[in-house]
Amino acid sequence: MKYIIMILIVLGLAGADFLTGLIKAYIKDDVCSAKMRKGGLNKMGELIIMVTACGLEIGIEQLGHYYQAAELAAVAGKVAAGLIFGYIVVMELISILENYSSICPDAWWVRSVIGKLRNVKSKEDTK
Question: Which residue of 5, 17, 23, 95 lies most exposed, with the fewest beta carbons within 10 A?
């Protein structure tokens, strides 16, 4: 069940990012099918990566049972899937907030939040 929830969260965030990007493009009179196609393909790529990470976690856990190292394998799988999930969530939240700050320029607080999230994202990138 946790894999379905993780995938649904990624799917929901990707959809929200796509929609806020579309609204931003419409407001700026910059709707372009090539950009939308590229954005949609990027979102599909994120979903594929998340599904792969969930499959990797399941596979590592099963290998752990086979080699009598179930606890170690469970931790390794959870860390791998958790890091990928966390990275995608932070990346999508930053993108959604960037789109929102373009849609609503009066939302000054958004830029502060984006800066903090970018700081978290850059720390994750160095791991």
Answer: 5
> The tokens of 31 are what?
């709707």
Residue 102: CB atoms within 10 A of its CB come to 17
Percent with pLDDT over 70 in the chain: 94
Give the Cα separation of 57 and 64 in Å (integer): 11
Residue whose C-alpha is closest to residue 84's, from 36, 45, 39: 45
Contact criterion met (CB below 8 Å) for 124 and 83: yes
End-to-end CA distance of the chain: 28
**Distance between CA atoms of residues 41 and 48, nearest Å:** 10
Length of the chain: 127
